[in-house]
Design goal:
It contains 16 helices and 15 strands. It is of the alpha/beta class. The structure holds one RNA strand.
Length: about 475
RNA sequence: GGCACCGUCGCCAAGUGGUAAGGCAAAGGUCUGCAAAACCUUUAUUCCCCGGUUCGAAUCCGGGCGGUGCCUCCA
């Protein structure tokens, strides 16, 4: 079954057909590394992670490139505030960023290029634009792209050049022919990192890096380009202008990326989470309190194009949901230990889930499909009476298929017992629980129950419940969970 | 001001022409010494409002109302 993706350029959901059969060239715009990544970044790269995982599950050989922007105004400013070398500061945050992505369970990109390693390619690309007449160097050390030379400028963002006039700005010292023109190369100012170029010492503008690194690692035309909705204009609009002008026919916007994907924002109180508003949580802050896999469940429960409102309540809910999923797997694993999974018949959990992902990566739908399968598995597992070999084979199939689906979402890959213990530790820590005390009380209660002193037993249960601890009496003794 | 997007049960959320997935919460039940968990049942004749197109619309069109984003750095 073919994959369909809503393409920003055409505004239509279209069948995804890569340039070369079986291969996908994918570029995701990476972060500017001047600070720790926040939950908005978490969403972005979890979304791309699922896209990559699903394309690979469907048999595509995917080359995933995601850059680090390590040359930028904000990095320079931050570095000078701290008296640190800008490239070193960027390198520090790039490493921290990798740690955050690993913690979230995101696959590493195949290539993670940095701007500072691609200055020659950037210079070459700018030279091409100058030679083709799409750019000009006014002699002040800057080079600008002449927006009006590109006929389809603004097609991606559905804006025409005249609409943009009012918002365009010219900074002091710039020498643009038109306020809409944007810098490809910026002449060096004192104290800034700078590289030699035909136009003097300087550094690349914001947009040219992605055009250059895309070409370097994936070629002039790529299959899939992704980013947040805030990148549609101006960043991706300008990338198209540059790449098509330098490497394509200079006219048609589709010459750069064949499909454009843009995801919605993470919000707080229905406002975009962003550094400038100050209403953000870093990934590490949140992962100190909540489980990373729960974060994925939370993020993937909403379709990638829609906004998702961040809150501790929602995240806690996702975490409890994850507990349910792992408790089910643990129970089913126990019953189906060593059993060969059933084949044929039944409903095809894996194929139905993949079909949902084929339809513009509908992860929320997949979670819904999983919900039904988990309910059915629990019902079978808890049914009275001895399990028949057929029952066990069915449970084994469920456990296998649930994990296969989970793999595409980057969830359910841990051992259930270990995951549950870690989830409980999290919840206990959030509540400030003394786990030794809980263990002591459980032991006391066991004695009371042995003596049939149910009043005492119930008192202990009530006491612990006050602390947020729920006790569960089972055949193997009493276990507990938080909330 | 310009250009887009969004408005579905108390809350979260899928569904883009064929008669409203799923999760949380709530109520009842099974199970249990009591519980918890799990499971079963119940919970939107209705999708912000008003018109229109259609045999048929939450889904398409027009107009309102409300919210958000981009137009400056941003995932």
């Amino acid at each position: 079954m073919p994959i369909h993706i809503l393409d920003t350029l055409t505004g239509k959901k279209r069948e995804f057909v890569p340039l070369e059969p079986g291969k996908v060239r994918f570029y995701a715009c990476g972060p500017t590394v001047y600070d720790h990544a926040h939950v908005g970044h978490a969403r972005s790269y979890v979304v791309w992670d699922v896209v990559i995982r699903h394309l690979r599950a469907r048999g595509y050989e995917v080359k995933y490139v995601r850059n680090f922007t390590d040359v930028d105004d904000k990095i320079i400013r931050r570095a000078s505030e701290r008296g640190e070398d800008p490239i070193a500061l960027a390198d520090r945050f790039a490493r921290a960023y990798d740690e955050d992505m690993d913690a979230l369970g995101n696959l590493r990109p195949d290539v993670a290029p940095r701007v500072s390693d691609h200055i020659p390619q950037i210079v070459t690309l700018i030279e091409k634009l100058l030679a083709k007449g799409f750019a000009y160097a006014p002699g002040n050390g800057d080079v600008y792209y002449e927006v009006r030379k590109f006929p389809e400028y603004g097609r991606l963002s559905k804006r025409n050049v005249d609409d943009l006039m009012s918002g365009a700005r010219v900074e002091p010292g710039e020498a643009k022919r038109d306020p809409l023109d944007f810098a490809l190369w910026k002449g060096a100012k004192p104290g800034e990192p700078a590289w030699d170029s035909p136009w003097g010492k300087g550094r690349p503008g914001w947009h040219i890096e992605c055009s250059a690194m895309t070409e370097e690692h994936l070629g002039a035309t790529i299959d899939l380009h992704g980013g947040g909705k805030d990148l549609v204009f101006p960043h991706h609009t300008n990338e198209i202008a540059q790449s098509v002008a330098a490497l394509g026919d200079g006219v048609h916007a589709e010459g750069f990326a064949r499909t454009w994907m843009h995801h919605g924002f993470v919000e707080i109180d229905s406002e975009k989470m962003s550094k400038s508003l100050g209403n953000f949580f870093t990934i590490r802050e949140v992962l100190a309190r909540f489980d990373a896999e729960a974060m994925r469940v939370f993020l993937l429960n909403t379709h990638y194009r829609n906004p998702v409102n961040y809150s501790d309540v929602e995240l806690g809910q996702a975490e409890r949901r994850l507990v349910y999923l792992y408790e089910t797997l643990e129970k089913v694993d126990r019953l189906a230990q060593g059993v060969t999974a059933a084949e044929g018949g039944g409903d095809d959990l894996v194929e139905r889930s993949r079909a949902a992902l084929d339809d513009d990566f509908n992860t929320a739908m997949v979670l819904g499909i999983l919900a039904d399968a988990f309910t059915a598995a629990n019902a079978l597992a808890d049914r009275k009476g001895k399990k028949t070999p057929e029952d066990k084979a069915e449970l084994a199939r469920f456990a296998r298929d649930a994990r296969l689906v989970g793999r595409e979402l980057g969830i359910l890959q841990r051992g259930p017992a270990q995951a549950l213990l870690s989830l409980r530790d999290r919840a206990a820590a959030r509540r400030g629980l003394d786990q030794a005390l809980v263990a002591r009380r459980i032991a006391e209660r066991a004695e009371a129950r042995l003596a049939k002193d149910f009043a005492r037993s119930d008192a202990i249960r009530a006491e612990l419940l006050e602390l947020g601890v729920a006790l569960m009496d089972g055949p193997q003794g009493t276990s507990w969970k938080v909330e």
